[in-house]
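Annual report, structural modelling task.

Input specification for the iron/sulfur cluster complex:
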Amino acid sequence: MTGAVAATRPGGGEGCTEPAVRHDPGQRAVFCGLTGIVWLHRKIQDAFFLVVGSRTCAHLIQSAAGVMIFAEPRFATAIIEERDLAGLADMNEELDRVVTRLLERRPDIKLLFLVGSCPSEVIKLDLKRASERLATRFAPGVRVLNYSGSGIETTFTQGEDACLASLVPTLADDPAGAPPSLLVVGALADVVEDQLARLFDQMGLRRFGFLPARRSEAMPAVGPGTRFLLAQPYLGDTARALEARGAVHLPAPFPLGAEGTTLWLKAAADAFAVPSANFEAATVLGRQRAERAIARYRDRLAGRRVMFFPDSQLEVPLARFLAREIGMQPVEVATPYLHRRHLAAELDLLPDGTVLSEAPDVDRQLDRCREARPDLTVCGLGLANPLEAEGLSTKWSIELLFTPLQGYDQAADLVDLFARPLVRRAALKV
Ligand code: SF4
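The model returned the following structure:
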């Protein structure tokens, strides 16, 4: 598919300072949503992810997550064999057998996700019905849900969105008349979650929770009194599902860097009428620590040009962070999908003239990259090696999901991820 380049304004044209968005659709090169299992299985400690897919799917998950030798794995693939595809076996019966064997062997599993893939979608295996059937059979000990991690028309972070959206209908109702509560939405490393919880405590918030929780029985309640902050920009379906339960989204930039984290926390503080003195007291030390950590990199990175290929959907918040806090120059910020409402606060902070593209054609963007020769290119694994071979420094965008980056105390790690490829290339030149 090809398309002409046209510039439109995000948000339907309100606001005169919003950056133009390049629409240049075509081929893309991204991982599929199964990748999210890599960080989700570490987060929800009594969950299991059973991919219903092909050997390719099994290989992807195994190589992305690494082999766990000493621990019982919390993910596996039920392989769809040729005889299944040929209709020679009843796939539902086989799936039930696999799940029964798994749950008998692993009583620690309390939440089972059946994860759809391209093959299961192509043959139209109804995993929703399968999960309902298995949920009835294994209730109340095990909850069974399903979502799709297929790579058809999705990007790799959308697996997390689909997983969390499948959890929302199972969340308990927040009791009527309960005081408003804050919900942080998005899988965060435990260390980040603990830091944020301490900050909320210090701000004086008493009712707050995280989705997903670390254990299935600890998932937060939701209702019209819930005010939620997204920790990640790619959680559109989850946000919609929460809004359908009456929860209210708090617009904010994302908690990347000192500024992003402060504005994100401030959105919660304002929603819960936290006095400014309490907010300042809770955040000042963390903010100063983050600012000092970031400043140490500024000399090396300021003025360097960075280009983003569309991959993680974190591109806009990262470009904002690199431009405003480090002084880097975004040459082009491409993202697979520009969620205008959830990114509105980020778009407002981007430097004037930033070139944004939504789901651009990969070959044409590669041409632009070769012409611009940015100092750093943030892209998927498949593009990184060829670009490195052409003398360009790259950063794998998937690393941004495997590393805890949100909040004040991760700011140094965040900026270090972008500094490392440049330091490495400088060392190679010596
Ligand atoms: S879900 Fe699709 S894209 Fe992902 S590994 Fe399986 S076949 Fe490949």
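Residues 32, 34, 53-54, 56-57, 60, 117-119, 149-151 surround iron/sulfur cluster (CB under 6 Å).
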